[in-house]
Design a protein that fits this description.
The protein is mainly α and 252 residues long. It has helices spanning 2-17, 19-50, 58-83, 85-93, 96-101, 106-133, 143-170, 174-190, 203-208, 210-218, 224-251. The protein has one domain (2-251). Helices cover 81% and strands 0% of the residues. The longest helix has 32 residues, at 19-50.
């Protein structure tokens, strides 16, 4: 465990020093801040009309849920750029053989990199959540919804990270990793997109769709099924990464 945390610490420090990580975080926060303020302005203009509806979404449903939905779409494209460097930078620096020869198990390497990246993503989710939390000073908002939405977004992001980490293990070119990552994430996101599709009625397809589980959390309808889904998705791809690294070590 100590070695895993050491790798995680190294990974997190790298993220804090990497210009790309800070640039992407700044761009994401800037875009989301603009979207958030635009939603707040829209809500102010129609707030008096919403009062006439018995099931009005209120500021929580109209602004906060929209913010986290937008965040997930934007970050789905950003996560592969962040996570793919976890293994490719060792290849660029010629340190892959050194990493394999270090007294580290494959599981310690994979889990360490995953934890370090997850901590960085927790920081990003925290900064995003400061936007809806700022509404506490001006309007009654459901703090539980904010917390659950933040949890859901973090689970979504680290799931995407686990997928990209695996693809970074099995591919040698960053461009290929990026392309495959975006393709897989879009597949998981869009597989149940159309309610008119025959696939959307298939229970297996509905379970595979990451969108359905994330939407449940945003609607504060979180269940053990949703948590098991994210844990299973993360566990599957981390296990595949460990298996692949074990095979690579045997060939070194």
């Amino acid at each position: 465990m100590q070695k895993t945390l050491l790798v995680a610490k190294h990974e997190f420090k790298y993220m804090l020093r990497a210009p790309l990580a800070w640039t992407l975080m700044g761009v994401v926060l800037l875009v989301l801040a603009w979207a958030f303020l635009a939603k707040v302005e829209d809500f102010q203009q129609i707030a008096h009309e919403l009062q006439n509806f018995p099931k009005s979404p209120g500021v929580t449903g109209f602004v906060i849920t929209s913010l986290y939905s937008t965040s997930s779409i934007i970050l789905m494209m950003i996560i592969p750029l962040l996570a793919m460097n976890s293994f490719h930078r060792e290849r660029w620096d010629g340190k892959m053989t050194l990493l394999f020869s270090a007294p580290l198990k494959s599981s310690e390497i994979v889990f360490g990199k995953f934890i370090g990246l997850s901590v960085y993503l927790a920081l990003m989710v925290f900064l995003i959540s400061l936007m809806p939390l700022s509404l506490l000073f001006a309007s009654p908002v459901d703090v539980t919804t904010i917390l659950l939405s933040a949890l859901g977004l973090w689970l979504l992001l680290i799931s995407f990270s686990a997928i990209t980490l695996f693809l970074a293990c099995v591919t040698k070119e960053p461009v290929i990793t990026l392309s495959l990552s975006i393709g897989v994430l879009l597949f998981l996101w869009l597989i149940d997109w159309s309610s008119q599709s025959a696939l959307s009625e298939n229970s297996l397809v509905r379970y595979i769709s990451v969108m359905k589980h994330y939407e449940n959390i945003l609607r504060t309808k979180i269940s053990t099924t949703d948590l098991i889904y994210f844990v299973s998705l993360i566990g599957l791809f981390l296990s595949l990464s460990i298996h692949h690294l074990n095979q690579k070590k045997e060939n070194v």
